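Q: Hi! First time doing this. I have a protein sequence and I read that you can turn it into a structure. Is that right? Here it is:
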Amino acid sequence: MSDLAGVPPAGRPRQIIAAARALLEEEGAEALTMRRLADRVGVKAPTLYKHFPDKSSVVTALAGEMLRETAEVLEAAECEDPGSFAGLATVYRTHALAHPHLYLLTMGSAVLPLGAADAAAAPLFRAAGGDEGRARAAWAFAHGMVVLELNGRFHPGADLAAAWETGIAAFSVLGREPGG
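A: Yes, that's right. Below is the predicted 3D structure, encoded as structure tokens:
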């Protein structure tokens, strides 16, 4: 009997994505194969193809989930301290580091769900006072720092807190100073 038995057909894709996420977060992107996912869900691989035509559609669904969650944490941070790049950067990093495999898979995905990335970026654009160039530069800083940190690209013993503080200070004027 499969883990999908008894799950209404409409709920099966959600259960498959939950299993894919668990597999990804526990074992990394290399473990996320349709065969491993089928084993996790308790079905044969062809059964998955009734719900997802290929692995990339599973990755797209996972990316959508990560981007929705990112939007939620950034919206909450924005409510706490409107216009604060420091608040946004801190929760962005915290959320990404809490879900490293999902973050890297999402940000490395060539296809992201329509509108999901825009929703995640909206608080940053508002903090930048509508200045798209500054918002993109600030996001590039935060994203670059997270990717470098997750991939272990900093020298052992590097003071990452100081690097984050320096970068945050450089962008902390977003939306806070006239003309800036």
